[in-house]
Amino acid sequence: MLEANNLAVEFAGRGRRARAVDGVNLSVGAGEIVALVGESGCGKTTLARTLLGLERPTSGEVRYDGSALSHRGRALKAYRRQVQLILQDPMGSLNPRQTVYEAVAEGPRIHGLPDEEQVVAEALSRAGLRPPERFFLRYPHELSGGQRQRVVIAGALALNPKVLIADEPVASLDASVRGEILALLLRLRNELGLSALVVTHDLGLAWNIADRVAVMYLGRIVESGPVEQILTAPQHPYTQALLSVLPESPDRIVLTGEPPDPTRIPTGCRFHPRCQLLASGKAAAAGIDTACHSEPLPILSSAADPQTACHLTLVDS
């Protein structure tokens, strides 16, 4: 349904260009939920914005249902009806001066959909706000956090999209409400056949909702595959470090430093300045430490099979 092909997005900086997305292949199939995970600053949100058509790629392309995304007005408007965004902060997403009805009706009005009231009522009902008429005249401050997020989801559903891109959809919600929203997304996938790309730093969320997971570091996918395989037997040291912070993990891996500056991407493996395999001497013992510092790794494809961009896995294979 949705695909990134060799996608790159650069931003001008002070004398250098920041490579926020640096060669990404990623696909989301029909009825599939893919989790895009990684720490803050790795390029997840820029990739999501590019897939939505909010950023123009420097190179590569976005494809929807087999056709390349056009950034021309009418084509882009039609595309955004099919691919909708759900943001993490419902209070920031909703206009405090708009009623729930006005918030959900905004999209259908822009796209000129008929039977507005019926469309709004059906969207609210699908999002779990029933009876929908009870919420028409309420304002965001009169709702709970979970109800506000359901209104945001209803606003996306009102356009009957095929793909949802959810950027940290439960990050701002209480723990007691998160499960409800995740269950809602799974139900919408099952009932409506929706596809979804869920952007998150929470691997626990990915485990609970995703079919596949793609791990992003410094603008590039470094590991991807079926969620059960990647999260139970991670091959990339960065994925291993991310998983180690989960409560059930026996050994905590502490990465040194912050993610590198995207204007100064390291040579060789882009993770090598923080890699625990290099720091512990395991890379040297395997004879790959020089390669880690100097030899670039191949860009992963968008295939569903497990893939890892690490010199150690190349040696093992």
TrEMBL record:
Belongs to the ABC transporter superfamily. Residues 2-243 form the ABC transporter domain. This is Peptide/nickel transport system ATP-binding protein. One of its GO terms (molecular function) is ATP hydrolysis activity. It comes from Kribbella caucasensis. Gene3D superfamilies: P-loop containing nucleotide triphosphate hydrolases. InterPro entries: AAA+_ATPase, ABC_transp_ATP-bind, ABC_transporter-like_ATP-bd, ABC_transporter-like_CS, Oligopep_ABC_C, P-loop_NTPase. Keywords: ATP-binding, Nucleotide-binding, Transport. It comes from the Bacteria. The keyword Repeat does not apply. GO terms for biological process: peptide transport; transmembrane transport.
